[in-house]
What does this fold into?
Amino acid sequence: MTAETDTQTTTVYRVNGMTCGHCEGAVTSEIAALPGVTSVKAVAASGEVTVVSAAPLADEDVRAAVDEAGYELAGRV
It folds into this structure.
């Protein structure tokens, strides 16, 4: 899912393997480091990560960040 406003884009991704708060923190930290990202909310219980950015992000950049955190990007919700 992607929603665009005049200044920001919100995208929800599904990430496999998150089971706890530490997992959420690791994924949040890696995605937050991407250029243009203004907000990240990872929820282990649902496996969903909501990302707010200045412009749409390239899926391969998000995938690389999630991989770096040690998890698997399943795709957009």
Summary: The mean pLDDT is 95. The beta strands are 2-4, 9-16, 37-43, 48-53, 72-76. The longest helix spans residues 21-32.
